């Protein structure tokens, strides 16, 4: 599994050659794009809703400081506690100290990409605490010691046959000859195993799709109900989320709750919407509610041309419609956030030198921006990172050299005209059966395709004689 | 069409280099639509490869040349959604922080059009005088479809070509995997996306693949040449101008 974003090209090639990955990724159009299209169509005026979503998120991103202070006051007033974490290490330590205080040995987890981002699970294990993923997809990838390959479908890279194989290997308490062909059989088996874990856990960790300043509430959307079991059964509940997930109030949240499921899965509303504000339960129970707010590089994007990516509500629509993700899946990125979101976010959070490939591996087809529920100009942000990469001299030398030669010519029309006339003749001379088959300086092009033979004279040459 | 208007033809670097007849087809169509067509000699490329690579200074310098060469015309027309999109959507971004050039970039952007869209929307062309025997499917380039909003125009014109049967690719919204330098930097990813598109094109049953952007067409035609797939590929302007009997892309003269 690629853990190094610098190895993106190699990992992408491996993914393309993985025969199991292809049938899994082929489900993308039907499972995501078609469902979103239906959900959007069924809603009606989705564009107006997107604009409202954009405005709500834009307000949040430009008022993070005051909204977060209000949020902390609201959470405190409800008997909860907010923990501020400027980076991954602070977040891990904050979570560990809460768990140590409560003496938790087993902790159930709802789906949370931020806990992936701060690499929480290996850290907890190293400290003698057993984290149990309870979202079915997360549970599967945890059993396989893999990171999620998709924001909302962590096991999207797997076929159900591969899942059956994993269950047979790990769930040794069941009859080894049982049938695991049906999807539902797999779900029921995971359910049975997880039920015991839910009962054993002393603490539960969930993410937060949104947090509201006025009410001090955290909201999660789920389809399996595992989020509620995670937060309600144990006495300690920890919400771990990014600082940018803040919105003003439940009114704002209600707009985003119309956008999020439709953009993600085409659902009008997710099966469960859990609104979590303060400790729940009887007054005499010692219950606690914590919110760990993670910055981890987010605030430094404010004021840059990448700021708009902070509006993201992690619906995955950009990923679900990305032709590059559709070809290689999520693991090739070697980072927690994949696809267009990763391409816009990773260079800012991890670094341009490390994740430059993410910003470059886009055709700029613009589909991601078109489907984004909060109208993030994703290609524009990727282009910004390319400009940063170029300005810092981090772009591959072969590309920048070729580009600078071409650009010099393009700035000098007479020279360009001469060069083009020469090149088109050369290409014609080199062509066999209507195509050029290779050219030393254009390895990338000729690795997978020929170049149709040109006419042999440029348009401008012919135009001069024509007129 | 009583008043003649002056159109500066932005030939595009790929048409200039590889497929000059697309330029002549564009001239013919524009003249039929009552335009005086000129081809400014100072043009090279729109600068998109530099801009998309983050080479902002180069993009800036090339864009200034284009603005200076074309701002005197009533309209700028390109047989490409991609180059037209660069001028229309991205030149204002190139000069976002340059108060001297921004108004000029915006003014040029406002009068720049993709060829088929210009014919239909600006010149009111409803039909072309051309014939083409066979079935054709039109590939929407992402820049035409999403940046320029060009979807119906090429199809409405193709439908008026004598003898032409218009077929559709089932998934018209997904990219073909060209993406300019992307196709060179990540060839294997580009290949997979292209193969998905090509399978879709072949499934349409069309005998000819056409489109408004030579970049996509060269990439798809070149991929099919390498892969031994047989389907003629040519620019939409050639068909609309009645020049569809010349050899297709990469086809040797019969």
Taking the alpha carbons of the first and last residues of chain B, their distance comes to 39 Å
Rg of Cα set of chain A: 25 Å
Strand order of the largest sheet of chain A: 1-10-7-4-2-3
Q: Helical residue percent of chain B?
A: 40-55%
CATH class of the domain at 45-294 in chain A: Alpha Beta
Shape of chain A: globular
Tell me how many strands of chain A there are. 12
Sheet having the most strands of chain A: 6 strands, parallel
- The helicity of chain A comes to 40-55%
Assembly type of the shown chains?
Answer: heterodimer
Please trace the helix and strand order of chain B, writing H or E for each element. Answer: EHHEHHEHHEHEHHEHHEHEH
Q: Major β-sheet of chain B, in short?
A: 4 strands, parallel
**What's the mean pLDDT score of chain A?**
96
Number of separate strands of chain B: 8
Polypeptide structure, described:
The complex is a heterodimer of chains A (467) and B (254). With 467 residues, chain A is α/β, with parallel strands linked by helices. Chain A is 52% helix and 11% strand. Chain A has helices at 8-16, 21-25, 28-43, 46-62, 64-77, 88-102, 113-117, 120-126, 136-143, 160-170, 183-200, 226-232, 250-264, 317-320, 323-328, 339-349, 352-360, 367-371, 378-391, 397-410, 413-430, 443-448, 459-466, and strands at residues 81-85, 106-109, 130-133, 203-206, 210-212, 217-222, 236-242, 246-247, 272-276, 288-294, 435-436, 451-452. In chain A, the strands form three sheets. In chain A, strands 1-10-7-4-2-3 form a six-stranded parallel beta sheet, sandwiched between helices. Chain A has a four-stranded mixed beta sheet with strand order 8-5-6-9, with helices on both faces. In chain A, helix 4 (46-62) packs across helix 13 (250-264), helix 10 crosses helix 11 (183-200) and helix 16 runs parallel beside helix 19 (378-391). Chain A is globular. The mean pLDDT of chain A is 96. Chain B has two domains: 5-121; 127-240, 3-Layer(aba) Sandwich (Rossmann fold). Chain B contains 13 helices and eight strands. Chain B has helices at 13-18, 20-32, 48-52, 56-70, 81-94, 102-110, 115-122, 142-147, 152-158, 182-185, 187-203, 214-227, 236-240; strands at 5-9, 35-38, 75-78, 112-114, 131-139, 162-167, 208-211, 232-235. In chain B, the strands form two sheets. Chain B has a four-stranded parallel beta sheet with strand order 2-1-3-4, with helices on both faces. A four-stranded parallel beta sheet of chain B has the order 6-5-7-8, with helices on both faces. Chain B is globular. The interface between A and B is large, with 69 and 72 residues.
């Amino acid at each position: 599994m690629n853990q190094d974003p610098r190895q993106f090209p190699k990992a992408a090639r491996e993914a393309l050659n993985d025969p199991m990955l292809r049938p899994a990724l082929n489900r993308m159009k039907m499972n995501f794009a078609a469902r979103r299209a239906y959900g959007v169509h069924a809603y009606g005026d989705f564009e107006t809703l997107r604009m409202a979503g954009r405005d709500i998120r834009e307000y949040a991103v430009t008022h993070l400081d005051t909204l977060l202070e209000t949020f902390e006051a609201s959470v405190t007033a409800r008997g909860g506690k907010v923990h501020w974490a400027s980076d991954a290490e602070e977040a891990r330590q904050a979570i560990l100290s809460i768990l140590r205080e409560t003496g938790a040995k087993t902790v159930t987890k709802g789906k949370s990409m931020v806990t992936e981002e701060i690499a929480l699970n290996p850290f907890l294990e190293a400290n003698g605490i057993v984290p149990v993923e309870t979202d079915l997809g997360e549970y599967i990838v945890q059993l396989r010691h893999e990171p999620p390959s998709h924001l909302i479908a962590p096991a999207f890279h797997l076929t159900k046959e591969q899942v059956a194989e994993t269950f047979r290997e790990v769930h040794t308490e069941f009859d080894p000859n049982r049938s695991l062909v049906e999807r539902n059989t797999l779900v029921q088996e995971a359910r049975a195993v997880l039920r015991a874990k839910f009962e054993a856990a002393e603490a539960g960790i969930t993410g937060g799709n949104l947090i509201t300043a006025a009410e001090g509430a955290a909201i999660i959307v789920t389809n399996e109900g595992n989020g509620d079991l995670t937060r309600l059964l144990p006495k300690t509940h920890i919400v771990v989320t990014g600082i940018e997930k803040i919105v003003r109030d439940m009114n704002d949240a209600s707009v985003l709750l119309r956008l999020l499921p439709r953009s993600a899965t085409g659902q009008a509303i997710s099966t469960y919407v859990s609104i979590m504000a303060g400790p729940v339960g009887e007054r005499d129970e010692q219950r606690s509610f914590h919110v760990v707010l993670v910055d981890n590089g987010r605030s430094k994007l404010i004021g840059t041309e990448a700021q708009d990516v902070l509006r993201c509500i992690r619906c995955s629509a950009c990923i679900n419609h990305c032709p590059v993700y559709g070809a290689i899946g999520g693991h090739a990125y070697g980072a927690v956030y994949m696809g267009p979101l990763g391409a816009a976010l990773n260079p800012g959070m991890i670094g341009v030198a490390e994740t430059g490939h993410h910003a470059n591996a886009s055709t700029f087809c613009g589909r991601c921006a078109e489907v984004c529920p909060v109208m993030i100009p994703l290609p524009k942000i990727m282009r910004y990172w390319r400009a940063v990469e170029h300005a810092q001299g981090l772009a591959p030398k072969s590309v920048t050299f070729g580009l600078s030669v071409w650009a010099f010519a393009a700035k000098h029309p007479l020279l360009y005209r001469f060069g083009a006339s020469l090149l088109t003749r050369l290409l014609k001379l080199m062509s066999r059966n209507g195509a050029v088959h290779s050219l030393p300086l254009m390895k990338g092009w000729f690795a997978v395709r020929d170049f149709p033979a040109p006419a042999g004279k440029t348009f401008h040459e012919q135009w001069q004689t024509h007129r | 069409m009583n008043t003649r208007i002056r159109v500066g033809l932005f030939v595009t670097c790929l048409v200039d280099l590889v497929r000059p007849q697309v330029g002549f087809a564009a001239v013919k169509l524009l003249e039929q639509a009552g335009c005086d067509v000129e081809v400014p000699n100072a043009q090279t490329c729109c600068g998109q490869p530099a801009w998309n690579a983050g080479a902002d200074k180069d993009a800036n310098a090339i864009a200034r040349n284009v603005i200076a060469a074309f701002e005197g015309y009533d309209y700028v027309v390109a047989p490409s959604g991609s180059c037209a999109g660069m001028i229309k959507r991205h030149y204002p971004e190139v000069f976002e922080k340059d108060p001297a050039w921004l108004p000029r970039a915006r003014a040029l952007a406002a009068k720049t059009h993709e060829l088929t869209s210009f014919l239909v929307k600006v010149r009111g062309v409803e039909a072309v005088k051309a014939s083409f025997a066979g079935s054709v499917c039109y590939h929407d380039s992402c820049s035409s479809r999403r940046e320029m909003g060009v979807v119906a125009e090429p199809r409405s014109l193709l439908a008026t070509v004598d003898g032409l049967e218009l077929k559709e690719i089932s998934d018209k919204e997904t990219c073909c995997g060209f993406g300019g330098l992307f196709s060179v930097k990540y060839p294997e990813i580009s290949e997979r996306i292209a193969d998905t598109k090509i399978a879709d094109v072949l499934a349409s049953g069309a005998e000819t693949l056409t489109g408004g952007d030579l970049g996509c067409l060269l990439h798809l035609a070149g991929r099919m040449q390498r892969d031994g797939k047989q389907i003629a590929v040519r620019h939409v302007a050639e068909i609309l101008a009645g020049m569809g009997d010349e050899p297709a892309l990469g086809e040797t003269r019969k």
